[in-house]
């Protein structure tokens, strides 16, 4: 599994790895879905997500924040994430796709927000690693 | 001097239940932990103390950063943290308020006794669960457009009064009469409003709940009478906040502050502590947005209380007025507020024994008092305590876990000197959610509570029940004992769950 849910006193943390930058973003987002729901189903329509930010950390924050926003507004849990990330003048841009499972079809719990607490996104010898704490 | 060593942090005991991390390095003030040794063992078990020490780096922090007896690790600022920043030369920090702006608790009293409810628990829990939206995507009691959201953000419970979801007395028993005048709906983003509009009047999930409880003990008859509490009485406790609207508001401003006040951010040990300097445009905007989210949360709890009155009417076939279902009080425990405090008092109250004049260099200052997982606890006589309670002190409601009691306290005489008028907010978590799910199974927890304690629990998610199992929380009795012994929040009454619904 490219992500793990890590213990945190009141909240939930996701530790993710990926061979590429896109893969580690996808794994972190899949970790957010896993923190919200234990058993996913196969239904749901495709969602498109676009975010941009001035740094990689900020991009990860904006991306996960957008997924939580989409969940509350569209009433779907975004899963099966795919992203492509490009560096642009003055920052980074992410174009993402996901499948949105209607909330009334699953037993999902609320993750309130993404936080910057202890957030890491780093390139390693094996690829990329990310660590994100979510407020539950 | 008695000291306590915790993972490289040494705390010095100032007096019983008061521990201090002396000012050192980049710390602008010392930090204090208010706890017994057994609570300190739990507090020092995670990153709480490191986070507490980090908060002393915030500009304009006054006297001390303080950790309440129920403190635990949060993000940036610890949960159970109180930090008072100068409103002229200091800062305001969204992370020090928390994502769930005005997460809080209200208690409604009734004239029903436990006898009246016994035999109706199943019907009551089912009906509350069916009628009070909870969980993820469960909608809200009110479906609203953006115009309605703006009105709620600007007017708070006054909006609910106009639309017959509240009566005048509800406003009189809520902090600030249920409306923060400094709120500005324009400071709240469209995204936040979009999230809020289908969640007006909803519990959410996590540790939020609605509980029917019975009063098991009244420790202080005089104050209990002033609060309308008697033994064996049924009360209703509602714990929730500003939902997605508040969470989005916090994140919107964290990002704006990160982009506009990078210089200040670079001086701080944790990005989550991002703060806007007092007087800056973002400080003003965040304060206006946070106050709007406070109004939203008050309306949220008001709508849930209103719906609970209707459920009781159906179950007991009597009008809610006849059952005297009245709001006792509503307290916020994630909030920053401009308040005037006498600074220097906290420092000197500990030194009285040394013979120094304890009031020698005190001054009155306007402060942004940040309470994150801490409850305001103003004592008797304070002008900001509602008239109904000014003679006895502000009611403080401390929810426990669903298998333990909750408490009603009153603001204590020592709170202004020790904690900027604050006390604890709950039991405080002990065990992570991931570990809780390994150790408990929701169905077992539910069955055990019903069989052994006659507590009827109904939840959208079995996992939530496991994550909120009574064993994952600290001992609320010990938290309250320390609050009472310190005189920051005095014990008035204890309650025990009868029915509990959650997300």
Automatic annotation (TrEMBL), chain A:
InterPro entries hit by this protein: Archease, Archease_dom, Archease_dom_sf
Domain of life from the UniProt record: Archaea
Keywords: Calcium, Metal-binding, tRNA processing
Family indicated by similarity: Belongs to the archease family.
Gene3D superfamilies: Archease domain
Molecular-function GO terms, alphabetical: metal ion binding
Organism whose genome encodes this protein: Halovivax asiaticus JCM 14624
Protein name as catalogued: Archease domain-containing protein
GO terms for biological process, alphabetical: tRNA processing
One family name in Pfam for this protein: Archease
Residue ranges occupied by any Archease domain in the UniProt entry: 3-136
UniProtKB/TrEMBL annotation, chain B:
InterPro entries attached to this UniProt entry: RtcB, RtcB-like_sf
Record Pfam families: RtcB (PF01139)
UniProt-annotated binding residues for GMP: 207-211, 333-334, 399-402, 406, 425-428, 502
Residues annotated for Mn(2+) 2 binding in this entry: 239, 333
UniProt-annotated catalytic positions: 425 (gmp-histidine intermediate)
Spans annotated as Disordered: 176-200
Keyword Ligase: yes
Co-factor note (free text): Binds 2 manganese ions per subunit.
Cofactor(s), names only, from the UniProt record: Mn(2+)
Signal peptide: none
Subunit structure: Monomer.
Protein name, entry field: tRNA-splicing ligase RtcB
